[in-house]
């Protein structure tokens, strides 16, 4: 996890521990229609790397784990239903494993994966309020980095991806408008990639990244 991500996560945990006495004293307000919650925290993006293939030389593409600060917004249509949007960007190292040339380092790429989900909160009046959700993810890949790439690799282009996102999480009302959010998303992401080489051959890869996105944030809630 990045230093910024670790610091944000530590701050969120410290706030929860420091506010523990308030959990027993404050009355629970619960969630209401028209509430907007803004969160700042950290996420870990953990690619499953379920499959995929590289043509010509064989092997499977792989993306590394990454972490980043995250900004998220939740708007409650009713006490039970909310729409949530997460915004973050992460850097991932890329490698093609098990090719005819062995493991080939491809460099790195940045991913910007805004994800919009519709969430169902069955216990909106409780201090500890779990939820389930489903939505869509659009991932924009940008900022290819050649550092660490194998000498034969000239560059990588990864197509943007659209996929389904499944969501589960827990909101904890701490004190007044402040709360803590724990969130997990499974994003189904299968972009195509093209690898330019110094050998005059362009390789094509089909990826099955399908990352698990785990996040924690401190939230501030107010009514619109």
Question: Can you tell me about this structure?
Answer:
By secondary structure, the chain is mainly β. It has helices at 3-18, 20-25; strands at residues 35-46, 51-54, 60-63, 66-76, 81-87, 90-99, 102-112, 115-120, 128-145, 153-158, 161-175, 178-187, 192-197, 202-208, 212-223. It has one domain (3-223): Porin (Beta Barrel). The protein has two helices and 15 strands. The protein has an eight-stranded antiparallel beta barrel. Strands 2-14-13-10 form a four-stranded antiparallel sheet, with no helix packed on it. It is elongated, with a radius of gyration of 20 Å.
Question: What does the secondary structure layout of this molecule look like, with pairings?
Answer:
Elements: H1 3-18, H2 20-25, E1 35-46, E2 51-54, E3 60-63, E4 66-76, E5 81-87, E6 90-99, E7 102-112, E8 115-120, E9 128-145, E10 153-158, E11 161-175, E12 178-187, E13 192-197, E14 202-208, E15 212-223
């Amino acid at each position: 996890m990045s230093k910024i991500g670790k610091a944000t996560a530590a701050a969120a945990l410290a706030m929860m521990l420091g506010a523990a006495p308030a959990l027993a004293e404050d009355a629970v307000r619960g969630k209401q229609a028209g509430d907007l919650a803004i969160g700042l925290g950290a996420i870990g993006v953990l690619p499953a790397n379920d499959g995929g293939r590289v043509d010509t030389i064989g092997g499977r593409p792989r993306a590394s784990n990454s972490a980043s600060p995250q900004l998220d917004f939740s708007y409650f249509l009713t006490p039970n239903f909310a729409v949530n949007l997460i915004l973050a960007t992460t850097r991932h190292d890329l490698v093609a494993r098990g090719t005819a040339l062995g493991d080939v380092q491809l460099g790195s790429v940045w991913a910007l994966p805004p994800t919009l989900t519709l969430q169902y909160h069955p216990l909106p009046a409780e201090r500890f309020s779990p939820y389930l959700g489903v939505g869509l993810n659009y991932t924009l890949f940008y900022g290819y980095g050649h550092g660490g790439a194998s000498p034969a690799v000239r560059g990588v282009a990864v197509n943007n991806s659209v996929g389904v996102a499944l969501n589960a999480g827990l909101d904890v009302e701490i004190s007044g408008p402040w709360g803590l959010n724990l969130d997990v998303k499974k994003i189904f992401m299968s972009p195509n990639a093209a690898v330019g080489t110094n050998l005059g051959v362009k390789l094509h890869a089909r990826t099955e990244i399908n990352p698990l996105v785990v996040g924690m944030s401190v939230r501030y809630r107010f009514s619109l």
